[in-house]
C-alpha cells in the first residue's frame, strides 16, 4: 500500500501553485518528494517547504518521471502540452485549467458536490472554474429541498482570479490613485483601483464572456443537469482576494422556507452559514479570504417570484476556488486507491 507520493506542481511560481505547496503541508498530504515546475524564467526561484525551500525547475519532458500526482495550474495551453507527458510517465494529473473541463471523458469535480463520479482508475481530473465552484458549494445543499429549475448569478470577482500579477497590479494602481497619480493598468483593460468592469475575457457571439460561459456549462456538467437554466453576469471588482456572488435560485415548485435553507447550508461540508440580519453581517471577501469554507448567507425569499430564494456567497478563489479543491480531489483518489489495494483478491 502507498505510504507517500512523489508530487509535481506545474505553475509553481503562480498564486495557485504556491497555495498547492502550502496546503500539502497544512493538510499533511503524504509527499515524499516534491518537484516544483514552471517556465524557464522562473527556474531557480526558491519556494518555502517544510522549514527549508525548494527551487523551481524549468519544466521538461522528463520532469514527471516517477511522479504519482501532478498538479497543474499554468493555463490551458500548458495543460494540453504537458498533461499527456505526465500521464505517460505514470502520474495522475489534477488540472486547474479549462483545457479538459468539458471533455465528456474527463471528470469535472467538486468533491463535496459530485465526488462520487471519481474512480480509482482516473488519471486526469479537472478542477472547475473558481466561480462555478463557489456557486455550487452554495447551491448543492439546496438540491435536497426541491428540484432547482433556474439559477441567476452575478459575480463580484477579485484580483486573485487573474493571478499574482493582477493582485500586484491592483495594489500598484490603488497606491497611485491614493497618491494623486493616474493609475496605469498592466494586467487589466481598464483602471482597476476604485473601479469595476465586466470580466476581462472575450465576448462570444451570444453576448456572454468566456467566464460567464464557463460557469454556465460547468455548472450543468457538475450537477448532471444539461437542461438547467443558468444566467450569469461576471464582474471584476477591486478586491484583492476571494470572490463574492449574488444568487437567485428558482425551484420547480414552491420555494423551501428560509429556515430549511439555513439548516441545509449549515449541515453541508465545506460551507459556513454567515447570516446575521441584526448585525448586517453576511458573506464578505474580507472574511472569506484565507478560509477553506465557502460563506453563505443573506438568505431570503424573492418577493417577485413564489418559487425563488436569494443568497449571497463568498469564497477564497485561490483556496476552495482552486488549490484546495485540487488537493481534495487527490485525497479522494488516494482513498479510493487504498480501498482497491486492500480489497481481497478473488
The strand order across the widest sheet is: 10-11-9-12-15-14-13
H-E string: EHEEEEEHEHEHEHEHEEHEHEEH
CATH architecture type of the largest domain: 2-Layer Sandwich
Could you give the count of β-strands?
15
Q: CA-to-CA gap between the ends? A: 18 Å
* CATH level-1 class of the largest domain: Alpha Beta
* Basic shape: globular
Q: Give the low-confidence spans.
A: none
CATH topology of the largest domain: Dihydrodipicolinate Reductase, domain 2
Helical element count? 9
Q: What proportion strand?
A: 15-25%
The secondary-structure class comes to alpha/beta
- How many separate structural domains? 2
Could you state the CATH homologous superfamily of the largest domain? Dihydrodipicolinate Reductase, domain 2
Q: What is the arithmetic mean of pLDDT?
A: 96
| Helix residue percentage | 25-40%
Radius of gyration: 21 Å
Largest sheet: 7 strands, mixed
What does this structure look like?
- The chain has 346 residues and is of the alpha/beta class.
- It has 2 domains: 5-128 and 322-342, Rossmann fold; 132-317, Dihydrodipicolinate Reductase, domain 2.
- The protein is 31% helix and 24% strand.
- It is built from 9 helices and 15 strands.
- The chain has helices at 15-26, 76-88, 111-114, 130-139, 163-178, 210-223, 258-266, 285-288, 319-342; strands spanning 5-10, 31-38, 46-49, 52-55, 57-58, 69-72, 92-95, 124-126, 148-157, 197-198, 229-236, 243-251, 271-273, 294-301, 308-315.
- The strands form 3 sheets. A 7-stranded mixed sheet has the order 10-11-9-12-15-14-13. Strands 5-2-1-6-7-8 form a 6-stranded parallel sheet, with helices on both faces. A two-stranded antiparallel ribbon has the order 3-4.
- Helix 1 (15-26) crosses helix 9 (319-342) and helix 4 crosses helix 6 (210-223).
- The relative contact order is 0.15.
